Amino acid sequence: MSASNPVIVLLSDSDTEPEDDPNLPSRDECEARCQTFAEITGTDTALAMFYLQDREWNVDRALNAYFAETGDNHKSQSDSASSVTPARVTLVSSHTGGTSTAARRDDAPYLTLRPPVIQPKSSKCIRVLSWNLGGLDPDNLQSRTEGACSVMMQEQPEIIFLQEVVGRSLKIIQEKCSSYQVFPSVEASVMTLGSYFTAMLLQKNTVQLRAINVADFPTTLMSRNLLEVQCKVKDVSMTLLTSHLESTAEYAAERKKQLTICFDRMLQAPKDHTVIFGGDLNLRDKE
């Protein structure tokens, strides 16, 4: 093979990634804990995964962090500490029907938290999800990616922007998210070991693809680019753009140049298009 040809490095699971953390709950248990968090906070499972992943999937710690950060109080003002009876919580898996019980007190009543009822989505509503999958961290990559896929398939947004996708996680996404068209921002021939990229997922039954383009940022030192799609979503003509801009404080000047390019592309979109730009912009407040 000549030096000018791309080199593709393929490694097996055992060669590329350490074994998953044995303390990580099963996939069904992770989903059940996400449902519990969403039910108690009145939010959704995507936010639940954000809080739970950073707190070793401990529901109590995740809830405490959420209420501390948002300033919400899930007890009514009339409740007092002495009047609150600790509940015995039964987590009901949405896939297996099995339960996982966390006993607060043996004689406490059961509070069964089932998956929240998803209200029918408006035919005119278009939902967009952006998610940095953290593919550079090899720890539990398969479990984390499968968990993200589970959330995406449950929430069913029409448009998904993903960052820090790697070759192995892309394969999982393509297998698990069967109701989506998956468009990575790089070709398979340049997906080498250690590289990561963005991707855009478009729901098959609501999005009609018209054109796709990938533009490399001319002065990037981190192989960053801008993925642009023109499509029709529920009879709305749209231009969608996503990127993962240059990282770290040292590259602020390059990051701002890239952001300017993104804004210019937005302004160049057809006048009858709704334009959405999103991703991981790495922007600091002063930028």
From TrEMBL:
<dbReference type="InterPro" id="IPR009060">
    <property type="entry name" value="UBA-like_sf"/>
</dbReference>
<dbReference type="GO" id="GO:0004518">
    <property type="term" value="F:nuclease activity"/>
</dbReference>
<dbReference type="GO" id="GO:0003697">
    <property type="term" value="F:single-stranded DNA binding"/>
</dbReference>
<dbReference type="Pfam" id="PF03372">
    <property type="entry name" value="Exo_endo_phos"/>
</dbReference>
<dbReference type="InterPro" id="IPR005135">
    <property type="entry name" value="Endo/exonuclease/phosphatase"/>
</dbReference>
<keyword id="KW-0227">DNA damage</keyword>
<keyword id="KW-0539">Nucleus</keyword>
<keyword id="KW-0479">Metal-binding</keyword>
<dbReference type="GO" id="GO:0006302">
    <property type="term" value="P:double-strand break repair"/>
</dbReference>
<dbReference type="GO" id="GO:0046872">
    <property type="term" value="F:metal ion binding"/>
</dbReference>
<feature type="domain" description="Endonuclease/exonuclease/phosphatase">
    <location>
        <begin position="129"/>
        <end position="283"/>
    </location>
</feature>
<feature type="region of interest" description="Disordered">
    <location>
        <begin position="1"/>
        <end position="28"/>
    </location>
</feature>
<dbReference type="InterPro" id="IPR036691">
    <property type="entry name" value="Endo/exonu/phosph_ase_sf"/>
</dbReference>
<dbReference type="GO" id="GO:0070260">
    <property type="term" value="F:5'-tyrosyl-DNA phosphodiesterase activity"/>
</dbReference>
<keyword id="KW-0234">DNA repair</keyword>
<dbReference type="InterPro" id="IPR051547">
    <property type="entry name" value="TDP2-like"/>
</dbReference>
<protein>
    <recommendedName>
        <fullName>Endonuclease/exonuclease/phosphatase domain-containing protein</fullName>
    </recommendedName>
</protein>
<dbReference type="GO" id="GO:0005737">
    <property type="term" value="C:cytoplasm"/>
</dbReference>
<dbReference type="Pfam" id="PF14555">
    <property type="entry name" value="UBA_4"/>
</dbReference>
<keyword id="KW-0460">Magnesium</keyword>
<keyword id="KW-0540">Nuclease</keyword>
<dbReference type="GO" id="GO:0016605">
    <property type="term" value="C:PML body"/>
</dbReference>
<keyword id="KW-0378">Hydrolase</keyword>
